[in-house]
Structures are given as C-alpha cells and as structure tokens.
Amino acid sequence: MLIVGCTSQSSNGSNSQNNVEVNSIMTTNYTIDDVTLNSGYKMPVLGLGTWTLSDSESETCVYEAIKVGYRLIDTARYYGNEVGVGRGVRKAIDDGIVKREEIFVTSKIMLSNYNSPDKAIDDSINALNIGYIDLMLIHQPGYRDEEVYKALERAVKAGKVHSIGISNYYTPQDFERINKIAEIVPAVVQNENHPFYQNTELQNYLKQYGTVVESWYPFGGRGNTKDLFNNETIKQIAAAYNKTSAQIILRWHLQAGYITVPGSKNLAHIAENFNIFDFELTESEMQAMAKLNKKRRFENW
Ligand SMILES: NC(=O)c1ccc[n+]([C@@H]2O[C@H](COP(=O)([O-])OP(=O)(O)OC[C@H]3O[C@@H](n4cnc5c(N)ncnc54)[C@H](OP(=O)(O)O)[C@@H]3O)[C@@H](O)[C@H]2O)c1
C-alpha cells in the first residue's frame, strides 16, 4: 500500500481529548486507499458522486461501481436518490459482491430540514434502507445548523450514524463555529475543491483535529469539466502516463490528501475514474498541479 500522507495515530474525535492532545496525535492517518477518520472508522478515499442521478440511474451506477471496486458512495437527501442508492448497495450485498461493512455511504441533511434534523436523519436511514449511515453531513451552513450538528451527535450515540461532519464550510472560522459547540469533532469537511480551487489553508488547519477534506466538483462540475480537462498542464501529464485528464485530476486529489467523489452516470467513465491506482504523480508534477490554483470556484454556495 502506498502511503502518501501523515501516518500517525488518529484519535476518537472527542473534544475533551483534543484539548490535551491536539498537537501530538491528532493528525490524519491517510493512505491512497482509505483514511482512518477521527471517529476511528476507515473511509475509502475515492468514491462515486450521485448528484443529478435519478433513483434508477443511481441504482444501476452504484451497483456497477461496486462491481468495479468502488466502496464509497456519496448521496444526499437533496439529491432525491437515496432510495436508488440504497437499492444499488443492497443488490451488491445480495449478489455477494460486498458485505455491508465494506461499503461506506455518505448522506447529508438538507437545509429545508434544519427545523427537524432528528426526523431528517431517520428519513435518510429509512430511504437508504441499509441500516446505519457511515457518514452524515450538514449539507451547508444555515439557520440552526448548530442544532443540526447536535442532532447528528445524538444519531452517533444512538448508533444510527457512524461518523459526522459538515459541508460547505470554507474557512477555519466557519469550521470553528460548529466545532466549538461540538462534543464530537467533525470527521470530514466536504467542500468544492479541485485544481483551480485548492483550499490548502483549511486542509492544513484541520490536520490538528484529524479532520479530512473531501472534494466535491473534483472536475469542476457538470458543464465545467472542459476547463480542467483541457488545461495544458493536466493534458501534458496525462499524455506522459497514457491516462486521461480525469484520471490525472483524481490522482492529484488523492496524492494531495483529499477524499473525492467524482460524479458520473456513464459506466465507462465510472470504470475509468477508478483506474488510477497503477501510477503515481511525481513531486514535480504535484508542484505543477499546485500552481494551477486560481482560487476559482464554480459555485457560490
Ligand atoms: N456537498 C455539496 O454541496 C456538494 C455539491 C456538489 C457535488 N457534491 C458531490 O460531489 C460529487 C461530484 O460532483 P459533481 O458530480 O457535481 O461534479 P464532478 O464530479 O466535478 O463532474 C461531473 C461531470 O464530469 C463528467 N465525468 C465524470 N467522469 C468523467 C470522465 N472520466 N471523463 C469525462 N467526463 C467525466 C460527468 O459526466 P458523465 O455523467 O457523462 O460521466 C459530469 O458531467 C457529486 O456527484 C455529489 O455527490 C456535493
């Protein structure tokens, strides 16, 4: 197994422990295959994103992705496809391809449910119908999001959810607003992140907590991918390895220490995006990718 990041022991994610051990053991145990979250659970570093996939597309794509080797699936209440994602996972389990404990499913509480977060968690669990949820996130900052985080903590204590985190919190200050009321330190911050928008400041800040950044829009999102795919630096590196721009970008995400969940409803792309474990970007290629940072986001939420 190729080790590409910090390797010291992670903690159990409790804030009381953070207070004494934050500088000594709270780093990230990250390998190219998975990361040990500060909750103690392992999370695969490459998964399938399902935004814009219907229930039936999700069922097929999730099932086929699991056959290819994917073990991480990203959904959300907002996507309206938790039922399909759950069906795809259950089919893979029923067919003996994986066991439930080998699959890692993320969902998110959507803004319009922030008034009833405990019910929102139960609704997602019922829709997915795969028992517990591996990782549940607050989808975005909003009114009562601190209360929403408390509901996530209750779900962890009740065994309904294994790990919890937040999404679309971009600065250390944004993170600390939730973290300071938290009993359980967020395990993951899922944000827009790609070669044109590399939020290394947040990533570096979070290392003290063993909190990992997960990239959404690894390719810039639907409608924007040509900007990244046609970038000359990325194309040159791709040619050198006989890989596609998509594969180089994903390899960069992993070697830069991010989890990522490229979205696709194309089975050839799904297979291509997982075929990135047979090569490694050099230090100078990683530096060239780092220079692509334009602090340019494609969305504004
Ligand atoms: N937390 C949040 O607020 C948030 C926001 C946005 C997204 N997300 C999550 O992050 C995931 C990723 O974002 P995204 O799906 O919106 O954008 P993305 O992964 O950056 O890009 C998806 C686009 O790339 C294309 N694509 C995928 N693989 C390709 C390949 N190998 N070659 C050529 N084109 C390829 C897809 O088309 P095809 O379908 O044709 O392959 C689609 O048009 C989402 O699915 C969702 O799970 C989270």
Tell me about this structure.
This protein is α/β, with parallel strands linked by helices. The protein has one domain (15-290): NADP-dependent oxidoreductase domain (TIM Barrel, Alpha-Beta Barrel). It has twelve helices and eleven strands. The strands form two sheets. Strands 4-5-6-7-8-9-10-11 form an eight-stranded parallel beta sheet. A three-stranded antiparallel beta sheet has the order 1-2-3, with no helix packed on it. The longest helix is centred in the first third of the chain and has 14 residues, at 55-68. The model is unreliable at 1-27 (pLDDT under 50). Residues 49-51, 74, 139, 167-168, 190, 216-222, 225, 244, 246, 261-266, 269, 272-273 line the site of NADP nicotinamide-adenine-dinucleotide phosphate (NAP).
Rg from C-alpha positions?
Answer: 18 Å
Span from first to last CA?
36 Å
**Small molecules (ligands, ions, cofactors) in the structure:** NADP nicotinamide-adenine-dinucleotide phosphate
Give the mean pLDDT: 91
